[in-house]
Amino acid sequence: MLVRKIGIAWFLSRVGVTIAVAGRLPQVPLSIPDNAGSNISIELFDDLEELSRIVDIAYCVGTAGLGIQKPFLCASRCQDFKSFELVKTWNTGPLLSDSCGYVALSHPPSAPRIIVAFRGTYSIVNAIIDLSTLPQDYIPYPGSSNEEHAEEGSKSLPNPLSRWADPASSRCDNCMVHAGFMASWRHTRPQIIDELDNLLIQYPNYQVTLVGHSLGGAVAALASLDFHAKGWNPQITTFGEPRVGNHALMKYIDKAFYHESQSNRSVAYRRVTHIGDPVPQLPLKEWGYRTHGEELYISKVNLPPERSDVQVCRGDDDRHCLDGADVSSDGSRSQRVPSAAMGSFARGMLEHAGNFEIPARFRIWQLFFAHRDYFWRLGLCIPGGDPHDWK
Questions:
Q1: Is 371 a known active-site residue?
Q2: What does the CA dihedral 41, 228, 265, 23 come to, rounded to 10 degrees?
Q3: 122-156 pLDDT, tens per residue?
């Protein structure tokens, strides 16, 4: 076990989480241009920018954060959301499957939502361990909150599929999921599910919305399937989401949240990536992991991006988006690292390395830059957010 952890240490790549959840309106689809490479609308751009700030607030929760107090006060960006009402915060502890975050209500005049924000881990050790975890079978399990407290493998647990309205269509055949990400969601679920049930009764017209950064994106993906099965019709946005499972699981997610017609595509799930970010390309494809749509790719290295810098992608291997950013003109799978995309220390290292080229997925230093730079520099609970201009 120790050898496996050491051997994989250079994949360091998981930080960050946040999820926003909102009430039980009929799902409001987001229209995406039909052509890959198209730019997004002004409305969608503004929505993504706001959600990135909501994600950032989650870093105030936990042992390294300064906390969030009622009605909605913190050292970071809480003042940007004067119509928000804090419901609760939680922290499951600094272990392998640690998770912490907050639940808040977004009242009018803001968009009516129940926001559940999942913060990422500050522990690089946890990041290494999580990415070295082998996949396990994925079984849809909406269940009741009480069932989550039963021991895994207990013979008393009912068949999860028996609780679906249509068990046959809800099957996920040959689906595999990252065991560490799944464990994080299982530990988080009992912390929030009863609260959300009650909030949805009190606020039936609030839209369920999930948003996550990095590890939080992975947790959001698994939570979204749970909430979808419960009929909550969630909307999901993730930033720097890692791969959570195999090809079968990714197709299962696509089937739940993406719908296409002759005129356009309407999606309830936006997966935002950024040039140079290694995390969305981990765990490795060589290990059997794949990525689902709908990717929205930020092609500008430095902050802040403009609307023209965000484009629509298709699938896991769109050469015009993050996957293609690691392809050289001769078709090889690596390219010279853009100087502007790294700090001075990393630039110095590569100057000594000569022409050695490092694939984007192995650029560890980008955990502190490209992986955090989604509209703002995410990850620290400080007034005004983390400044983006330090290198």
A1: yes
A2: -40
A3: 654 455 455 556 788 998 865 444 444 443 443 33
